[in-house]
Specification:
17% of the residues lie in helices and 39% in strands. The protein is α+β, with helices and mostly antiparallel strands and 175 residues long.
């Protein structure tokens, strides 16, 4: 058994995601299992919908029919989640021994936000350390830490070209 909580994907009946999530949270509260099941998440995105000439913002589920649960896998926590009404089982090759999501999957799905320390500011010279422009040197033109984006102006073929990168794809130049 692992000591750290990991994210697991739980399959539910379509349209029962909210019910399953609230049932798991209620069971955790009643049985005082906060140390085993730490978080329940239904990934959603905000979408602007135009209907009958009216614009409104709605939340749409990114993965309909699935709920993400951050938990330490034990017999007790597995049993609690697996026997929740509306839950059909864990996602994995064997529902009795589910596989947790990898760190990369968790970050790509946007389930957990990771903190990146920025050691550069506007106007600083930086080196691209990841992606197709590895090795290019440029100047920071715009920073958006909340969106995990930085715009760097690099010189390509004798022209200044703005490139949008993620914050961890660049590093400061050591003078």
């Amino acid at each position: 058994m692992s000591d750290t909580a990991k994210w697991y994907v739980v399959h539910t009946y379509s349209g029962y995601e909210n019910k399953v999530a609230s049932s798991i949270e209620k069971a955790v509260e009643n049985r005082k299992l906060h140390d085993l099941i730490t978080e329940v998440n239904i990934p959603v995105e905000k979408v602007t919908e135009v209907k009958d000439g009216k614009t409104r913002e709605i939340e749409r589920k990114l993965f309909p029919g699935y709920v993400l649960v951050k938990m330490i896998m034990t017999d007790e926590s597995w049993y609690l989640v697996r026997n929740t009404r509306g839950c059909t089982g864990f996602v994995g090759p064997n529902s009795n021994k589910p596989l947790p999501l990898t760190e990369e999957e968790v970050i790509k799905m946007g389930v957990e936000k990771r903190q990146i320390e920025i050691s550069y500011a506007l106007g600083d010279s930086v080196r691209v350390i990841d992606g197709p422009l590895v090795g290019f040197i440029g100047v920071v033109d715009e920073l958006e830490p909340e969106k995990n984006k930085v715009r760097v102006v690099v010189s390509m073929f004798g022209r200044e070209t703005p490139v949008e990168l993620e914050l961890d794809q660049v590093e400061t130049l050591d003078e």
